[in-house]
């Protein structure tokens, strides 16, 4: 099964962003805009995992969550990754968020899961590039329109193990979740 570990975001923060994106979507129809119900902050992409690994992975993810306290975050700014992704960034407790992502990746590696070794860049993918007239769509205008976005702050207090089923309408199903429980 295809899995990732996410930091679920509160509905209010997602609704606020969705409302702000309305005019951006209308002015910049070139990207494929990701529906808000599929927005999440990926802490670690795990890929295809054998079901037999789930008990140990769950135990290790619970430990990683217990070492992190709740985080104060806000959706803030925006940009793009090449011609593939338009994103909204984060502000707030970014150092503890990065440590949490590193702990989640380490938990997966200790379970025998090969996790990419790359720098964690907290972002919410809001649109994906597509080919228009044989050329990649220009994502720069949409990314520029999001650069000044500043959402309200919120408290993130749990992580989730999520199953991803690909297709024209990908489906994400939370398999388990753990509170960020360390004392501040």
TrEMBL record:
<feature type="active site" description="Proton donor">
    <location>
        <position position="40"/>
    </location>
</feature>
<dbReference type="Pfam" id="PF13563">
    <property type="entry name" value="2_5_RNA_ligase2"/>
</dbReference>
<comment type="similarity">
    <text>Belongs to the 2H phosphoesterase superfamily. ThpR family.</text>
</comment>
<feature type="short sequence motif" description="HXTX 1">
    <location>
        <begin position="40"/>
        <end position="43"/>
    </location>
</feature>
<keyword id="KW-0378">Hydrolase</keyword>
<comment type="function">
    <text>Hydrolyzes RNA 2',3'-cyclic phosphodiester to an RNA 2'-phosphomonoester.</text>
</comment>
<feature type="active site" description="Proton acceptor">
    <location>
        <position position="123"/>
    </location>
</feature>
<protein>
    <recommendedName>
        <fullName>RNA 2',3'-cyclic phosphodiesterase</fullName>
        <ecNumber>3.1.4.58</ecNumber>
    </recommendedName>
</protein>
<dbReference type="InterPro" id="IPR004175">
    <property type="entry name" value="RNA_CPDase"/>
</dbReference>
<dbReference type="InterPro" id="IPR009097">
    <property type="entry name" value="Cyclic_Pdiesterase"/>
</dbReference>
<feature type="short sequence motif" description="HXTX 2">
    <location>
        <begin position="123"/>
        <end position="126"/>
    </location>
</feature>
């Amino acid at each position: 099964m295809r899995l990732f570990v996410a930091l679920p975001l509160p509905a209010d923060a997602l609704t606020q962003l969705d409302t702000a994106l309305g005019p951006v979507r209308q002015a910049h129809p070139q990207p494929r805009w990701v529906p808000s119900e599929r927005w999440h902050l990926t802490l670690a992409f795990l890929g295809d995992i054998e079901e037999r690994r789930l008990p140990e992975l769950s135990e290790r993810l619970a430990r990683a969550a217990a070492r992190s306290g709740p985080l104060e975050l806000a959706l803030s700014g925006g940009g793009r990754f090449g011609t593939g992704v338009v994103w909204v960034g984060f502000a707030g407790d970014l150092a503890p968020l990065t440590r949490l992502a590193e702990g989640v990746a380490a938990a997966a590696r200790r379970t025998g899961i090969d996790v990419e070794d790359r720098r964690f860049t907290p972002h919410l993918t809001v649109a994906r590039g597509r080919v228009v007239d044989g050329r990649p769509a220009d994502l720069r205008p949409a990314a520029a329109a999001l650069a000044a976005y500043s959402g309200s702050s919120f408290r993130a207090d749990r992580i989730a193990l999520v199953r991803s089923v690909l297709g024209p309408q990908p489906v994400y199903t939370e398999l388990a979740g753990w509170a960020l429980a360390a004392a501040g």
